[in-house]
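Sample pair:
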Amino acid sequence: MTKSEPHKLIDELPDSAVEGAGVLLRGIIRGPIDPDQAWFWTPAWQQGEQEAEAELAKGAGVVYRSTEDFISHLESVPPAESDRGCRPTKSCPDSFVTGSDLDLSSGGPSSTR
């Protein structure tokens, strides 16, 4: 992307998004925001962060102390109707990975979708 291309993008932003874009750009320029982490500072993501914090403050939600605990819980949840009975496997590539698909020693999925 060239320096002139962001100007075009800014011109296309709805008025409601201009302030958020300014916060991101200033943060990247001044340093506290790593450009690779800019997504975290978008208004939509920050709204989700606030909702999660509010849930935790009310005692709602669950905090998993380990990846293994989280994966164990995910594997214990029955598939939703919208999953069409499709379990996350290589034969169902549009589904999410399960704990058996993860290489926990590397911290991420051992295969991609």
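The chain has two domains: 4-57, 67-100.
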